[in-house]
Amino acid sequence: MPDPLPLARPLGLSPSFGFGDRLGLATLGHARALLRHGGPIRGIFAQQSVRELTRTGREAEDVMQAAQTALRAPEFAGIGPWGADADHLKEPADIERYAKAGFTFYTLDPSPCMEAAADAWPQEQVEARYAEIRAEVAWVEALAGQRIAVPEGPVIDCTLPQLKRAAVKIGRAIGKTVALARSLAESSARHGLQTEIEVSVDETDTPTSFLEHWLVAHRLREEGVTIASLAPRFPGSLEKGVEYKGDPAVLAASMNGHGALARFMGPYKLSLHSGSDKLAIYPLLARASRGCFHVKSAGTSYLEALRVLARHDADGFRQAIALARARYAADRASYHVSAELAMFPEPAGCDSAALEAAYLDRWEDTPPGRGFTGLGRQVLHCAFGSILTDPALGPRLRQVLAEHAATHEAFLVEHFARHLRALQP
Ligand SMILES: [Zn+2]
After folding, report:
1. Active-site annotation holds for 87
2. Which residues are within 8 A (CB) of 395 and not within 5 positions of it... i.e. 6 or more apart?
3. Which of 360, 99, 97, 105 is nearest to 241 (CA)?
4. Cα–Cα distance between 69 and 48 in angstroms, integer?
């Protein structure tokens, strides 16, 4: 009888790093990177959003099993508790899909109920919308006039006009989060699972204010919902697959304030989504959260798999780029990216080293302490579903990875060693 498969667990306030693995072949590299370079950081080795399951044609069980199978190796006996993230859940029906597969960390994403643009609305538009949703945000008036001095953090003034604007922007999203949390409580009980909640309000165009953060935390607490982690939308540009762009002083002020709020209202972890490749801001996050953070990465591991293709099957890599370019207009639709195809060479006739530099970027071209900046990564990033489910390219990529498993692992270990080292306290 083989040993039973290791099980995911809640990680509480331990700092954590989420390694999304869209291929189901990366956990070995992820776990080795964590074991050697993670320090106190725990791994979330199974992590997939509903969108990713749809685009890759996988189920939550496949994702969990891929992680478990890799982690049962004796070398990972000392890796400590590890988590499994049911990522970006927007509907109660999605929760059960993950609960029956044993996922433990639930990222509740109420963004479809958010009104991100309300930040810039004139007050009369805010008032009109507030009048429409008043019954859903009945808590507004009771909070008016409160002043909350967050220890070592911001002072939050709950003026009625500001509360109304915040309620219009995120009030219904808070209600949705409560509904999702109730549904999770039922699924957890049904499956005898210990679970924890992250709330993510990051996938929106406007930064999360301290008042909004406080309101989310306050309302959830009033409703009896305990959270392990919260992902605000930070200021600046947090695009997929590349380094942060924005004013570091503005980001630091935001992270420090949100970190103080997370300690005061929880404590819970401060979470950075689209967190891969943003090495330059990791020290800020580690300091602002006092080591109580979560970082989520996903597509960057699949890009390292494509690097194996670039090195060992140049023609396959050219075909992957051609497919990604052909699908980019459609595939980019739900992602925060700014690459344009005209910026990058057509793959036909281009040598693979030049293509790798243009579409994946390389550590040898990247200054120390920084992540990749090459926007060509986004063209391949958005195409993961198109490439992995392509009847010719998908199997071809898997074949190359099987033949060059050591290279694949080495790329992943180097990639995440750099990430994990930048996060050490
Ligand atoms: Zn996110």
Report:
1. yes
2. none
3. 360
4. 17
pLDDT in tens, 276-304: 999 999 999 999 999 999 999 999 999 99
Extended beta strands in 102-212, E state: 105-108, 147-149, 155-157, 196-200
Closest residue by Cα to residue 216 from 152, 172, 161: 172
- Near ion ligand 1, which residues have CB within 5 Å? 202, 273
**Ligand 1 mean position, distance from CA 13 (Å):** 19
Cβ neighbours, 10 Å, residue 248: 12
CA of 203 to the centre of ligand 1 (A): 6
pLDDT at position 97 over 60: yes
Q: Are the C-beta atoms of 228 and 12 separated by less than 8 Å?
A: yes
What is the structure's pLDDT at 233?
Answer: 96
3-state secondary structure of 404: coil
pLDDT tens track for 6-27: 999 999 999 999 999 999 999 9
Distance between CA atoms of 124 and 126, rounded to whole angstroms?
5
List Cα–Cα distances, 396 to 152, 224, 270, 289, 318, in angstroms.
54, 50, 39, 43, 13
* DSSP secondary structure code for residue 274 in this structure: S
Residue 36, C-beta contacts closer than 8 angstroms, at least 6 positions apart: 413, 417
Alpha helices in 192-295 (DSSP H): 210-222, 248-265, 282-288
